[in-house]
Design brief:
One of its GO terms (molecular function) is RNA binding. This protein has 6 helices and 18 strands. The chain is of the alpha+beta class and 300 residues long. The longest helix is centred in the middle third of the chain and has 11 residues.
Length: 300
């Protein structure tokens, strides 16, 4: 990948300038040792070189090698947004984000790799920025190269990156119109796949707004402020409002065959194109049907 800038400012080491652009220490090492190049005013330079105002800087990153463990799997993708740096897809429920033992060929990562090959993308390495549980649907972000991945990683747990879910939960007791769930989450002693609220767990913060509610259930808009495994599912189960269909955290799925959870909204700053990306994904058919059955409406 090629990146170009014109430097304006006081004298600065080239390495420091590149770190300002989002290059990690590991990426700077790749530039030096794995086939990358850095030019200043059309002359190749070491990263210790001092750049001055008006200098033109060009970086050719080292080639990225696609992992052989991710086998391309050709399948239609519901693409919500794409540019030279990012690919955002609307993942269906029932599909894993990344390959797992015994399911090596049909994850979203496998599908994205096939798409990158088909479209002759410069890098065919798959960079997963945000993951979703197998049975959670909605918006999922892939980066098309290492720098794009590194830059977005820096936003993930900041106010610049907004990730919101719609959940349909049971409603034994009324929920606040706006509330927070602040409970630490750790791994269950009895089953490594299950997470539990525990004093020894990691700090976890979930914000919610109640969009609609009745005696049958509630439609929630949920914002994550930390990124723990199964965080929304664990937190709502812990306060007595387990998600419809979530058999891992509730003895009763209420006849729904997966957790009623959908990543409906993403907003972040595209650091290389210098623009705001703001995307919405409507409820999938199964959750829309459940909402209608429960007489719940989704409001903005």
């Amino acid at each position: 990948m090629r990146f170009e800038w014109q430097y304006e400012g006081p004298p600065l080491k080239l390495a420091a300038f590149l770190k300002q652009q989002g290059f990690s220490r590991a990426q700077l090492k790749k530039l030096r040792y794995q086939g990358g190049f850095v030019f200043v005013n059309k002359r190749q330079r070491h990263t210790a070189y001092l750049v001055r105002s008006g200098d033109r800087i060009l970086v050719q990153t080292a080639p990225e090698h696609a992992a052989d463990s991710v086998v391309p799997y050709s399948h239609d993708l519901a693409i919500s947004y794409e540019d030279d740096d990012y690919l955002i897809v609307n993942k269906p429920a029932g599909v894993a984000s990344i390959p797992a033992v015994g399911r090596q060929n049909n994850s979203m990562a496998n599908m994205v790799k096939a798409y990158l090959i088909k479209t002759k993308a410069e890098s065919q390495a798959v960079h997963v920025v945000t993951r979703l549980d197998r049975d959670t649907s909605g918006l999922m972000v892939f980066a098309k190269h290492g720098l794009a991945h590194s830059l977005l990683d820096q936003q993930l747990h900041s106010q610049d990156f907004v990730k919101q879910y719609v959940a349909i939960v049971t409603a034994q007791t009324p929920l606040a119109t706006h509330g927070w769930i602040v409970l630490p989450i750790g791994v269950s002693d009895g089953f490594y796949m299950r997470r539990v609220v525990t004093d020894t767990g990691k700090a976890s913060v979930t914000e919610y707004r109640t969009l609609d509610e009745n005696t049958a259930g509630a439609m929630m808009l949920v914002t994550l402020h930390t990124g723990r495994t199964h965080q929304i599912r664990v937190h709502f189960a812990a306060i007595g409002h387990a998600l419809y269909g979530d058999g891992l955290y509730s003895p009763d799925t209420h006849g729904f065959n997966r957790q009623a959870l959908h990543c409906a909204h993403l907003r972040f700053w595209q650091p290389l194109k210098h623009k705001l990306i703001d995307l919405h994904a409507p409820l999938p058919a199964d959750m829309a049907t459940l909402a209608a059955k429960l007489k719940l409406s989704q409001q903005d």
